[in-house]
From TrEMBL:
Domain CobE/GbiG C-terminal: 2-114
Chain intervals with Basic and acidic residues compositional bias: 60-77
Superkingdom of this protein's organism: Bacteria
Protein's name in the database: Cobalamin biosynthesis protein
InterPro entries noted in UniProt: CobE/GbiG_C, CobE/GbiG_C_sf
Length: 123
């Protein structure tokens, strides 16, 4: 299972999320931080993609090692990349990053891909 993890700014649009996913690659599920999962733009994106959504608690992010580092992510969520940490957390134990974060053209959204080690349930 390939999970696309998302980080995005408050000003992000549906086009921002679409572009970030297009740059990252194909996914079978999407995920973001709990507080962002309930936003109108992410709910519309989830409906449009018709992919399962996993909400990741912010307290799970610092325990995930990320390939890239953003000062904003470090300051707000104590992780180098929200998109990468969310993808890894949603993909479950033993997941591996298969595409580090990419940034949408408007710089409002990031997306990273992680793959589960097994066909088991996502956590």
């Amino acid at each position: 299972m390939i999970v696309a993890g998302f980080g995005f700014r408050r000003e992000a649009t549906l086009a921002s999320l679409r572009d970030a996913l297009a740059k990252a690659g194909r996914a079978q599920a999407i995920a973001t931080v709990t507080e962002k999962a309930v936003t109108e733009v992410f709910r519309a994106f989830a409906e449009e993609t018709n992919l399962p959504v996993t909400q990741v608690s912010p307290d799970k992010l610092p325990e995930k090692e990320t390939a890239t580092h953003s000062h904003h992510s470090e300051n707000r969520y104590r992780t180098g990349s929200v998109a990468e940490a969310v993808a890894l957390a949603a993909a479950g134990p033993g997941a591996r990053l298969i595409a580090p974060r990419v940034v949408s053209s408007d710089r409002m959204a990031t997306c990273a891909l992680a793959e589960t080690n097994s066909r088991g349930d996502m956590s």
